[in-house]
Amino acid sequence: MIEPNLSEFSTILIFIIGALAFVIVGFAVARLIRPNKPNFEKLTTYESGEDTVGNAWGRFNIRFYVIAIIFLLFEVEIIYLFPWAVIFGDKELIEGTDWAWAWFAIAEMFIFIFLLALGLVYAWRKGFLDWVKPAAVSNTFESKIPSEAYKHLRE
Questions:
Q1: Residue 63 buriedness (CB in 10 A; 0-12 / 13-18 / 19+)
Q2: N or C: less crowded end of the chain, CB within 10 Å?
Q3: Looking at residue 25, what is its pLDDT?
């Protein structure tokens, strides 16, 4: 019987090369079969169905960034909770474990969750999660288009 001479790293390298080849071949085939008919509309900047207004380097309210950072922090912290939950969900691993270690891990996770909650309470108390409601503005727009221009729409 012949045994393969591949180590674990060689197997991973083969998968990486295969994935890169799959992506490159996919892009090449897509480029060959897709229609290429650029026009002005296709080449304009598209922002959620709206025409862009002003410069892209405009200023934004700092609350956008604060909310984004808080969101990222809590998302990253969830990544630490998942492996812990998987380990404690494995009955075979828990049965052969010293219970002192298990109680230490549970206490450690509750301290971790408490610190997360404390950070959330801090951000809440400082007002980082409060959103400023926009002031109501009355509509003062007057149309200068005559009503005769809309006749063809009624027909």
A1: middle
A2: N
A3: 98
Q: Which residues of the chain have pLDDT under 50?
A: none
CA 59, 62, 67, 72 torsion-angle sign: positive
Instruction: Please enumerate in sequence order all residues whose Cβ is within 8 A of that of 81, keeping only pairs 6 or more positions apart, or say none.
Output: 109, 112, 113
All structural domains of the chain with their residue ranges? 62-125
CA–CA gap between residue 105 and residue 117 (Å, rounded) = 18
